[in-house]
Amino acid sequence: MGLFSNKISREDVRPGDHVYSWRTAYSYAHHGIYIGDDKVIHFTRGRGEETGTGTVLDILLLSSGPARRTDACEKCNNQQDTSGVSCCCLNCFLSGGSLYRFEYSVSPTLFLAKARGGTCTLAESDPPETVVHRATYLHENGFGCYNIFKNNCEDFAIYCKTGLLVIDRTPIGRSGQAASVLGAPFAAVFSSPLRFLTTNITGMTVVAVGMYCLSRYAADIGVRRDASKVSVEDLTVKLGVHNLQVIPSTGVVIQE
């Protein structure tokens, strides 16, 4: 674990760990919570949810869960077609990939030094037993509709680890990799007025990279002011009585 890689061995993983594995040539990572006994609870886009974006992001949507296996898994009964929150063995979760552990309570320096979003956060993690409780509770009660920007697998894992939810209608949820996807065009747009302060490509690149890093920092759940602690029991009750709206292609929105 460190600046360049969060890769760990299977012997190092512990119950309550937020784990992930890269998909589609390292373009996107799938996240989950390791609960022990070689099992991972994770949030997937179900194969019945076929609402696409009509863009290249559909490739990322399809890679949000483990790849379909042709052979049955004896440990988890190959529950890869289950939509929403599901539980599978570590092998099925990794789907042939390597195992990584998401880092919490990192310093601002380390956070900004990470070139890729979706690998660490400034937020503090709750105790492992609390994390496992949230994950198992949501496995039984659900986490709403999958949305790549506001309610994806990383959002699920971060909520299980921190209990934090974003309570406004901005287009970015808790996911660091979603913030990275949106941060690149953000940097390009908002750095353009600053092009007059530079006279060469190098200067413009530095400005764009700086804006990209700032956009990632501002979107991190550890510093956002629109994030609120919500107990998992309250979350599912609000989902049940519609105080919390779950709208396809919109994600989780807490009504104010």
From TrEMBL:
Ranges for domain LRAT: 20-169
Top-level lineage group: Eukaryota
One of the Pfam families matching this protein, by short name: LRAT
Descriptive protein name: LRAT domain-containing protein
Organism: Araucaria cunninghamii (Hoop pine)
